[in-house]
Recover the amino acids of this structure.
């Protein structure tokens, strides 16, 4: 399969989840810079579809990243969180909006030291613990959907869980990978 075909297939499968589809349609209304639907709501939808389950089965939340370095206060981020909550309230799901420009301010208190100051939302996507889960979708001005997958889609499709070399945290990787395998037993855990 060509890269373009794999990209199109990923987008189509991610959009089989009605919540993903609605968020992608509405996301431009927020007017946030460098704004992406990311992570679990995407790769879990792909794994659910592959497992012949409902596309949204077991998805706890829907993560959105944006990047605004002009105001790193929690208050500024909270204003955007509240706007997003209002925009997506009718979907009946938890939507988690995070300004990637300020992650370095709180990450070490929650997950441990060593998180750099990011320069974009893509930098945040690049740092998910499991490399095949580093995916994001962004609607462009013309209505097309852009995919960002720095490690490609092959291992995501095959269900190969490998530590992300950009964020090596062995204990957290194992915990995360085992959690995924408990829900999708066909996944395999690979070493770095």
């Amino acid at each position: 399969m060509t890269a373009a075909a794999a990209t199109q297939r990923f987008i189509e499968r991610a959009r089989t989840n009605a919540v993903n589809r609605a968020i992608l349609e509405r996301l431009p209304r927020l007017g946030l810079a460098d704004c992406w639907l990311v992570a679990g709501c995407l790769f879990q939808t792909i794994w659910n579809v592959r497992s012949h389950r409902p596309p949204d089965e077991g998805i706890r939340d829907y993560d959105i990243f944006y990047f605004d370095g002009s105001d790193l206060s929690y208050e500024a981020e909270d204003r955007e969180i509240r706007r997003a909550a209002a925009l997506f309230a009718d979907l009946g799901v938890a939507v988690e909006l995070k300004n990637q420009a300020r992650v370095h301010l709180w990450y070490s208190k929650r997950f441990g030291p060593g998180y750099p100051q990011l320069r974009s939302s893509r930098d945040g996507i690049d740092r998910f613990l499991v490399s095949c889960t580093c995916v994001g979708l962004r609607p462009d001005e013309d209505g097309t959907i852009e995919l960002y997958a720095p490690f490609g889609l092959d291992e995501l499709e095959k269900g190969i869980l490998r530590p992300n070399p950009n964020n090596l945290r062995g204990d957290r990787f194992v915990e995360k990978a085992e959690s995924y395998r408990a829900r999708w037993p066909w996944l395999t855990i690979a070493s770095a």
